[in-house]
Amino acid sequence: MLLARLVDVSREVAATSARSRKIAALAGLFADAQPDDVALVISYLAGRVPQGRIGVGWSVLKEAVPPAAVPSLSVADADAAFTRLAEITGSGSQAERKRLVRELMARATAEEQEFVMRLLMGEVRQGALDAIALEGVAQAAGAPAADVRRAVMLDGSLPRVARDLLAEGPAALERFQLRVGSPVLPMLAHTAKSVTEAVGALGTACVVEEKLDGIRVQVHRSGEDIRIYTRSLDDITDRLPEVTDAARQMTGDRFILDGEVIALDATGRPVPFQDIASRVGSRVDVNAARAVLPLSAVFFDVLAADGAPTLDLPGSERHTVLARLVPEPMRVRRAVVEDPASSQQVAAAEEFFSETLRRGHEGVLVKALDAPYVAGRRGRSWLKVKPVHTLDLVVLAAEWGHGRRTGLLSNLHLGARAADGTYVMLGKTFKGLTDEMLRWQTQRLRELAVNDDGFTVTVRPELVVEIAFDGVQRSPRYPAGVTLRFARVLRHRPDKPAQQADTIEQVLDSRG
Ligand SMILES: Nc1ncnc2c1ncn2[C@@H]1O[C@H](COP(=O)(O)OP(=O)(O)OP(=O)(O)O)[C@@H](O)[C@H]1O
Which residues take part in binding ATP (predicted)? Predict the structure, then answer.
């Protein structure tokens, strides 16, 4: 398939707000694509490059290349070029990247060049595209969308389901069944501001569970064969011998469990997420790593037991099954709210939340007890509650935006106050900025500018912004050795002098 066709449809989908028109446009595109191209088409439309990070940033892309007059580049050509780019290593990499990008861009029309640029800069963001693409695939193949959705949830991959469905027709869907041994996408949660709000929103009997800050794991046991998968369905069995041992001791031998891997220190408090992530991420000498930081799995759900799916059972019944398989110390701590209208029970749930935080955990999840497990979805029946952290930080510099944000100062460099009156950079963010905020800050930051290298504008440190974030994490890239997790701008604070911004001590203290 020509890239030009994809670019046209991408533009058409972005330009229409009618869901049915978007689906029809995508269905037409999928029907024309070779089944083998469909995976790439779906990825590019959603702004994903299957190769992941390919090391091509603005410094490589900024060079203008005369565009081709007529489209000739195929989707597969773009994929081949991205693969070659991803493989570049060693000295001279940057020059080689530039050469390959120039070669690719020279074959692309102006529209294709713009699309490739936005794709590689992470600016092709089509809200909820995967959900629409799924319906487009269903329409193109003449299969019910609900059946395609279920197949995707069980297989974990829309591109794979789409390829088989478009090549073989609706009968291919029967192949996608829940099986012990093949991972499914986990259920995710929505956010609520407080436990009281969450219980009220669910409006039904529910359970409040500890939210443990570790690595999500799905543990499959089929007889003696035990497999552990991450949230993105990578097999990490070899890295977690503790979890394999635990699964071997359970009372069943054909099940799928959902849980979180954490580590506790000598006093029983959870160790920081990053320590767990680096232990789980490391393949070298697992036994030595295990001796230094032993991990434990804590389970909160069951997707299959005795070889049969339990996904569609209500949460209360799944918990009964879980309690039969998994001994209590390996189950998440929980408090049941039988009656959401009982102020006494809601107060007890709030107390459970406070106690969970005191014990060093991240927050809680409030889950409806009558709801099924909806794999691969951010379900409305799971609501997470975490304390909100905010800081007032000072803008030290800002980067010029690209694509839709061209001509606007976007990515902000954020600093906290140090005792000597200087500022310590904590990270960057362009999240949370509305168009209006972008316009306002561009004007204000231009007034404060001291230098502009065409990429970054350094400013006098005078503008304060209120930043929400999910936690402080270690980062060798920043001078204080820490950065903020999921920083996003809540509002500009032109009323607040920089001398009253938060200090680096406050930031370090908020690590808890
Ligand atoms: N008791 C629990 N029930 C469900 N998920 C839990 C529980 N304890 C910890 N978790 C973790 O919390 C996550 C729930 O939040 P969500 O599904 O929104 O994931 P997320 O996008 O990674 O968000 P967050 O960064 O808040 O963890 C799960 O993915 C899981 O890893």
Answer: 209, 216, 231, 260, 300, 378, 384
